[in-house]
Amino acid sequence: MLIDGRASVQFGGDRALWLRVASVCDKPTYDGWVWLTGYSIDLGTGKALARREVFVQIAGLQIQPPTTEGAPPRNVAPVMRRRGV
Q1: What is the per-residue pLDDT for 76?
Q2: Domain that holds residue 35
């Protein structure tokens, strides 16, 4: 998710950041605002740089679709069932 000056003035100009959102706080805030917790992302490598908590306007968030190009396959463990249960 791109967080820039449209989401909050504190992220205007060169202070914009890409955030991989981990959670959205459910505590009440001002109407149209939300606390997000996540990790700032290095766009060159896709790696997380630092954990961040940001207070932003929902209408200003720039949600980007996930990319699957070059993504490693997910390892998903099969569901194990116990016999005789």
Answers
A1: 46
A2: 2-60
